[in-house]
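Quick review question:
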């Protein structure tokens, strides 16, 4: 089954509709997104394959999804570490970090060192609204995501691989080599998915049928209590 993609403009508009006619708050959407990411992690890298997970969080909503994911991973039995060098000031983000501190989940400012002792990296740096170039301190993170150390089973990117152009994919800032092993699209895939060659998941079970119909995409069938579904990377046209 082919899935249509959402441009950055329509992805932002869909979020507004979810918080308008859909009745969701930004807190709820971030919680659902982070839960979806955590379930994708459990599918591809259960704790039996390595409990240490490094979550790289950016300053925007994509980073918030990563913070939520870290909390869920802790509850699943993982040992998460969070890299969050540029915390956001809104109370929502403060609450998320407070929740992690309450669980004694460590934060690090040394990404290279943390990457050398983890089994999996989650890339929650930048989302569909990213406009380059990649600036410090994240400019030193992207090369490690591109070529992680041998102890890392792989990188799972959230919504859009960081440093990729949401429309045109990789190639920004000379990081043509960044191809995460796993990718989870949120609500619907973005146009850059046509450049992706790894394992792709979708997390968007919460999108009401009326909103999906407005943006002309189909919410796939999710099994049981699953919040993610694996979908093919070949897709339809850009919305």
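Suggested answer, residue by residue:
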């Amino acid at each position: 089954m082919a899935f249509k993609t959402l441009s950055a403009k329509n992805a932002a508009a869909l979020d507004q509709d979810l918080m308008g006619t859909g009745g969701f708050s930004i807190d709820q959407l971030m919680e659902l997104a982070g839960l979806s990411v955590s379930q994708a992690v459990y599918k591809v890298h259960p704790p039996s394959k390595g409990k240490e997970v490094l979550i790289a969080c950016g300053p925007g909503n994509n980073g918030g999804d990563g913070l939520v994911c870290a909390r869920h991973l802790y509850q699943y039995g993982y040992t998460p570490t969070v890299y969050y060098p540029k915390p956001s000031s809104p109370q929502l983000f403060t609450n998320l970090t407070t929740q992690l501190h309450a669980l004694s989940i460590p934060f690090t400012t040394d990404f290279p060192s943390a990457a050398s002792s983890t089994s999996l990296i989650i890339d929650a740096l930048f989302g569909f609204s990213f406009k380059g170039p990649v600036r410090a301190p994240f400019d030193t993170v992207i090369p490690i995501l591109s070529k992680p150390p041998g102890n890392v089973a792989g990188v799972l990117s959230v919504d859009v691989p960081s440093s990729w152009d949401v429309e045109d994919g990789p190639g920004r800032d000379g990081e043509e080599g960044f191809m995460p092993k796993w990718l989870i699209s949120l609500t619907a895939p973005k146009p850059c998915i046509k450049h992706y060659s790894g394992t792709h998941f979708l997390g968007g079970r919460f999108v009401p049928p009326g909103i999906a119909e407005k943006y002309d995409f189909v919410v796939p069938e999710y099994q049981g209590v699953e919040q993610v579904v694996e979908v093919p990377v070949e897709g339809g046209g850009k919305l």
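Why it works: Confidence is low (pLDDT under 50) at residues 235-239. The CA atoms of residues 36 and 103 lie 20 Å apart.
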